[in-house]
Structures are given as C-alpha cells and as structure tokens.
Amino acid sequence: QTKILEIDPLNFQLEKIKEAAEYIKAGKLVVFPTETVYGLGANALDETAVKNIFIAKGRPSDNPLIAHFSDIKDILDFVEIDKNLFEKIKILTPGPITFVLKKKKNIPDIVTAGRNTVAVRIPAHPIARALIKESNTPIAAPSANLSGKPSPTDPQHVIEDLNGRVDIIINGGKVDFGLESTVIDLTEKIPTLLRPGPITPEKLREIFGKIEIPEFIYGKAKVDVARAPGMKYRHYAPDKKTILIEYSENRIEKIHQLAKNYKNPLIIAFKEDEKYFSEIDTLISGSIENYFEIATNLFAFLREADKTNNDVIIIEGVEDKGLGISIMNRLRKAATEIWR
Ligand code: TXA
Ligand code: MG
Quick check: is 237 in a domain? Predict the structure, then answer.
C-alpha cells in the first residue's frame, strides 16, 4: 500500500517532511520531487533499502545511482576532492547537476554498482532538501519511473509507474525543469560530460574551462559503458513506434512524406508548425523560440502520445545547441527511427 503525501513546496509543514524522513530512516522507499524530475529515494547507507530501489524500478544492477545531499559540505565525508575543485562545484550547487567523484569506502557498493566513483547531487528543490536534511543521511535516488520509461515530471506519472511498489509518494506538484540533471565526470584531468541536462556546456566551460563532450552525447557513437553505464539503455521510450525528424529547413515536407505511410499518425510539433498539419493529429511540444518550454514538456508529451490510438509518433527535433543538446539526447534515445 502506497501512502500519498500532499506537500506544497512553497509553504510546507515540516511535520509532513518529518513523517517521510521517518520512512527513509526505517529503510523504506520514498518518492520525492526535485527541480529536475521526481526521484525514488532510500537511505544511501542502507544496502537492503537501496536494493529495494532496483527492484521497485526494475533497474539493472550494473547502473549506479546518484547520492543526494542537502548541503554541499556533507559530501566531504563520502568523496575525495581537492579544495580547488570543491570551490568550483560549490558555484553550481544547489542545482540541476550531478558530479561523478572518487568515492570513500563508506558509500556501499550497491549504490555505485561496484565502481570506485560515486555520483553526487545537491538538489535545489525545497522538499528534496528538507527531506534529506530531516533524514540525516544521503538519499540514493534514480528517477522515479519504471526502468525504460520517460522520467516523471508530474506526480501523476509517478502514480502510473510506482503506485503499490513504494512506501510513500510525495505529491509536490509539477517539477521545474523536466529534464534530468547534467552529469559531469570530474575524476580525470579534463571534465567529461556524461549526460547533458539543464546546465549547458557553455555554463560548464565557464566554471571548468575545457570540457570533453563525447560523441555518444549526440547519438553519433557507441556509448562508452565504462564511463557512462546508464547511457547504453534505451530510455524514455514510448511503446509505440516513434520517429524523430532531425531539425532542418525542409522538415515540413519530410514529415508529410513520412506521414503518408501510416494510417493514423500523431505529429509532436512546434507551435509555429502546427498550421502545416491541419489534416493530421498533433500535440504541441512548445515554441521553436523557447527550448526551455520544450524541455519542460518533453517527458509529459512522450507519455501522452503513447496513450492515444495513433499508430505512430512523429516528433520534430530541435537544433543541437544550448539546451537543445539535452533535448535531442533524450529524443534520440526515445526514437525507434531517426530521419536526418
Ligand atoms: O535529475 C536527476 O539526476 C534525477 C533526480 C532524481 O536527481 N536522477 C536521475 O537518476 O536521473 P538516474 O538514476 O535516472 O540517472 C543517473 C545517471 C545514470 O545515467 C547513471 O548511469 C549515472 O547517472 N551514474 C550514476 N553513478 C555514476 C558513476 N559513478 N559513474 C558514471 N555515471 C554514473
Ligand atoms: Mg532515469
């Protein structure tokens, strides 16, 4: 039986947070909102509790979890980091970014899938921070979806996927960003982007100087599993056939040509392009001028598109720039077919 706790992120009663924190301390599973997506949390120092995260989500055990902290200083008990680097990551926290660092022994192997590194994040969301603080322990949490499904950006998505599989779901409303945190590996000389997210490469360069962006980020090469264990899995995937149209000037013609091959296609289109598809079913992803809007809606419209009776989903892609890199990274993983 899953308990649903309604908590207003802007005006919450500490009593409710404390109740959820008692569950964390008791080794139970608690779904909580962060500013990126909802997380499926448990006490990171309790091996049995962490094992239950993998079971509830159906997640492969070779894919490590992020350890969440309420205060950046708290990571010092769990990772090896020099002062200079610590000062840099402080600038980006709290926020939608995850740092891969050398771990100390007190982080259980089950959290890191046996690696000598651990991913740490300090979320900015008030409920997430209060929950971690009241639990008095780091919280291990993947995104709160069933493995393979789009990450949950709305409490309704969590209920669809995890009702009956976890102990508490905190309903804190819709999330802010709607894309998972940027993951950056800081264990080698040149910081390497492992997952693009709300913190863009431009911003990372401001803080770290030179960074490496592997080809797999753009879907152009095989994932280096040794470095980015989670990126090999097909992800965010609707059950329906899903075709991604890479951004181009002649995308409208391409889509019309493609749509003819199907009985009942659904186009996920920019606001500005909807008028060209008046004969076809459409969902609006957002404005071509506002990648933030598209990013925020992305996972919700992938879930929505999967529930209609259309026989194929055709999605308009954005340009690989700024936040567009993160959007395209997710869409290329969600797609069964890509038209360039
Ligand atoms: O926004 C987010 O990051 C959300 C919220 C809940 O914090 N969490 C999230 O977790 O997206 P998850 O488990 O769905 O994705 C974590 C990613 C995976 O791709 C995983 O492989 C990678 O981080 N990761 C975790 N530990 C790692 C490590 N030690 N080395 C390399 N990659 C790691
Ligand atoms: Mg995930």
Answer: no
Residue 4 CB neighbour total at 10 angstroms: 13
Q: For 283, phi and psi rounded to 5 degrees? A: -125, 145
Q: Domain containing 319 — which CATH number?
A: 3.40.50.11030
Q: Is 147 in the pocket of ligand 1 (CB under 6 A)?
A: no
Residue 75's domain comprises 3-232
Q: Which amino acid is at 195?
A: R
pLDDT tens digits, 260-302: 999 999 999 999 999 999 999 999 999 999 999 999 999 999 9
Residue 119: strand pairing partners: 66, 100
> Counting atoms of ligand 1 from 1, which one is nearest the CA of 145?
14
pLDDT at 244: 97
Ligand number nearest CA of 236 is 2
Cα-based distances in Å from 57 to 9, 151, 265, 277, 298: 25, 11, 31, 38, 21
Here the tokens at position 170 are 């905190």
Are residues 202 and 135 located together in one domain of the fold?
yes
Pocket test for ligand 1, best of 177, 183, 216, 227 (most atoms within 8 A of CB): 183
Ligand number with the minimum distance to the CA of 195: 1
Final residue before a domain boundary, out of 198, 232, 266:
232
- With a 6 A CB cut-off, is 162 part of the ligand 1 pocket? no
Structural element, H or E, at residue 110: helix 109-112
Residues 130 and 205 occupy one common structural domain? yes
